[in-house]
Design brief:
With about 700 residues, the protein is of the alpha/beta class. The chain is built from 26 helices and nine strands. The chain has helices spanning about 1-10, 35-45, 85-105, 150-160, 180-190, 205-210, 215-220, 245-260, 260-265, 275-290, 295-315, 325-340, 345-375, 380-395, 400-420, 430-445, 450-465, 470-500, 505-510, 515-535, 545-555, 565-590, 595-600, 610-655, 655-660, 665-694; strands at about 25-30, 60-65, 70-75, 80-85, 115-120, 130, 165-170, 195-200, 230-235. The protein has a nine-stranded mixed β-sheet with strand order 4-3-5-2-6-1-7-8-9, sandwiched between helices.
């Protein structure tokens, strides 16, 4: 069992921010020896009341130091946090400590044994518990209670005689060693020096005032005082100015020791100086004591558990304590509910977005590769033959695959929408990263049914084979569909021509824009080609070589040198615009053509084969959207749901994945609580076993 307890403790990460209240580091020293200053340097904040020569520490102050993101202090019995980076908060904290000390001191007394408990958190703080005791005095002065000296000795002994207490003995280096009182007291409490750390303060003054520097060396080597210690340290905790900042003191201390003769002459060793080294040594000693005292460690975890539970109650009063695994289970249920929501999407919505997305995907091919080439033919029979051949080739090779791609992308978009859309005030963003990862992995694993394309090909082929428009409403819808498609292409063509020839006179006048030389050449070429089109509005799509030569010579006669390839490029856009405008005019004429179509009248002016083509395309889109919607709702949504379940099961087995995807203070706090309770239970079981053995 003991081995099991040690294993759990060794696995416990220091990042859990525990606060161990036993053992304690007891800070003792003669009055005005600099105890409080040393403690402040370790806590990295000026947190204690100060006074020149008078007693300021009137009752023990227990300071629990711990690592934390913000430098703050709070009393054990209060919820107020003091920000130690703000001077007004520091002043308020010092005032509060002084008030509590005076409140603790009973009438007729000078000091009190009642402890003030203060927690200090901050980045870089060494985790430990220190108790600042009233300074030991030799003489009771006027205004003090007669028993003050004995009371201070009694309080100090009570803390120091605890076998788990680490004694931090503070000695003023600027006064004669023979005047020290506390060293005798410490040597009585810890004669072998197994849990004592000696600290010599005000070394800067000592170096100036002491005639023989070797006396400082003797003190640090443990040869001058009648006491033994684990380690000896020399520190400087300021120049005596109470308004100095911790940072300024630290800089002064480091500068002093860098230039100190004591270090340069090797009277002091580098590891024995500065409050930083002292803090590290005290922390090491403290934690060694913790490891050696399991029962005290159990008490420490009880305090930690209380602090964590209090933090949870203060921060998340309406939420259950759910650790990472429990949160994952909750998220899992939410995700599965969101996947089920896909089945509630209406058929109408599915078909609308499928039809729109599919047309966006295939419209360029339909117009550029099917309609425009067929429309260049001069008679109805050739137009229909060209269209039928190209539609057949398209259906056999590309269309079913494009349709399945569109359906899969639509399913992904709808799935993402349900997974990411806010759920109102109750939305818990703690699951966002997990949901995104599940969504991405599920989509990655999903593969559309292999047989979908084959069945779709047959349906699309049959839809495109049909040329029979049954009523006027369908005819009008096809005309509207065709107009919309051609208008979009015409706008793109107009934009391309504008980019080619530059701004017209209106834009040049209003916006002070000019054409480039190349745009000027394009514009001259465009004007020349438009003259040609005006003479022959039924001009074929391609320029003959003699026409290119004619255009080129006409331009050269006006001083415009032009390349044949530029003429061809310009012609492509000019003819395209001419063709689209003609097609739109023809489309408008065909509004009254349904009667002729229905009666099979032959009227060359109203041969509306292009309207029939767009009706076939429109009908194919509707039938394809309907078929894909059925595949989605009947098969693919269920398969996606299955994938999501598999992904969630895999993630559930992957602890690293859960740690990565479920993060935040709330998760960490719940994990801390779970771990601390687990350790406490094991420690309690071990302690109980020890008690039973006794």
């Amino acid at each position: 069992m003991y081995s099991e307890v040690l294993d759990v403790l060794s696995d416990y990460d220091a990042s859990y921010n525990t606060q161990d209240h036993l053992p304690r580091v007891v800070v003792v020293g003669d009055q005005s020896a600099g105890k409080t200053s040393v403690l402040e340097m370790i806590a990295q904040a000026r947190i204690f009341p100060r006074g020149s020569g008078e007693m300021m520490t009137r009752s023990p102050v227990k300071v629990t130091l711990s690592e934390g993101p913000h430098h703050v202090a709070l009393f054990k019995d209060s919820s107020r946090e003091f920000d130690l980076t703000k001077e007004e908060d520091l002043a308020a904290l010092r005032h509060e400590i002084e008030l509590r000390m005076r409140k603790n001191v009973k009438e007729g007394c000078t000091v009190s044994p009642e402890t003030i408990s203060l927690n200090v958190k901050g980045p870089g703080l060494q985790r430990m518990v220190l108790v600042d005791l009233p300074g030991v005095i030799n003489t009771v002065t006027a205004g003090m209670a007669p028993d003050t000296k004995e009371t201070i000795f009694s309080i100090s002994k009570a803390y120091m005689q605890n076998p788990n207490a680490i004694i931090l003995c503070i000695q003023d280096g600027s006064v004669d060693a023979e005047r020290s009182i506390v060293t005798d007291l410490v040597s009585q409490m810890d004669p072998h020096g197994r849990r004592t750390i000696f600290v010599l303060t005000k070394v800067d003054l000592a170096e100036k005032n002491v005639a023989s520097p070797s006396r400082i060396q003797q003190i640090i080597e443990g040869k001058l005082f009648p006491m033994k210690a684990l380690g000896y340290f020399a520190v400087v905790t300021g120049k005596g100015n109470s308004s100095e900042s911790i940072e300024a003191i630290r800089e002064y201390e480091e500068e002093f020791f860098q230039n100190s003769k004591l270090l340069k002459t090797s009277m002091l060793k580098a590891h024995q100086v500065t409050t930083r080294n002292l803090s590290l040594a005290v922390s090491d000693c403290f934690w060694k004591m913790v490891r050696e005292s399991v029962e005290q460690q159990a008490d420490s975890f009880k305090a930690t558990r209380f602090n964590l539970e209090t933090e949870w109650k203060n921060n998340y009063p309406r939420l259950r304590e759910l650790d990472r695994n429990e949160l994952f289970e909750k998220a899992k249920n939410e995700i599965l509910d969101e996947v089920i929501s896909l089945s509630q999407v209406t058929p109408k919505h599915w078909e609308e977005i499928l039809q729109q997305s599919l047309w966006e995907r295939v419209s360029t091919h339909v117009i550029e590769n099917i309609y425009l080439p067929a429309a260049q033919t001069m008679n109805s029979g050739t137009f229909n033959t060209t269209v039928d051949i190209k539609l057949k080739q398209w259906t056999d090779k590309q269309l079913p695959n494009k349709a399945v791609e569109v359906a899969w992308e639509t399913l992904q978009e709808e799935f993402s929408r349900f997974m990411t859309e806010p759920k109102g005030k109750e939305h818990d963003d703690i699951f966002d990263k997990l949901k995104e990862a599940v969504k991405e992995e599920s989509i990655k694993r999903h593969k559309w049914n292999d047989f979908a394309e084959d069945s779709l090909r047959v349906i699309q082929h049959n839809a495109l084979e049909d040329r029979s428009i049954s009523d006027k409403q369908q005819w009008d819808a096809a005309i509207y569909f065709m107009e919309e498609a051609l208008q979009a292409r015409l706008k793109d063509t107009e934009d391309a021509i504008e980019n080619m020839i530059g701004p017209d006179w209106k834009k040049r006048w209003l916006y002070w824009k000019n054409r480039t030389q190349e745009q000027g050449i394009h514009n001259e070429t465009k004007n020349e080609l438009e003259k040609m089109l005006k003479c022959n509005e039924e001009h074929p799509a391609y320029l003959a070589s003699d026409e290119i030569t004619t255009v080129r010579k006409n331009l050269e006669s006006r001083g415009v040198e032009v390349d044949p390839s530029l003429i061809k490029d310009t012609w492509h856009q000019v003819y395209r615009r001419h063709f689209l405008k003609t097609a739109l005019n023809h489309c408008n004429l065909c509004r009254r053509g349904f009667y002729y179509y229905q009666r099979h009248f032959v009227d060359s002016e109203l041969e509306c084969n292009d309207v029939v083509l767009f009706w076939r395309i429109q009908r194919m889109l509707a039938i394809t959207a309907n078929t894909l919607r059925q595949q989605l709702t009947n098969t693919e949504v269920r398969r996606l749901e299955k994938n999501v379940k598999e992904v969630l099961e895999d993630f559930a087995e992957d602890s690293e994945k859960k740690v990565k995807l479920l993060t935040g203070k709330r998760v960490q706090l719940a994990e801390d609580l779970k771990k601390v309770r687990e350790i406490q239970e094991k420690l309690d079981a071990f302690i109980e076993a020890l008690h039973q053995e006794k």
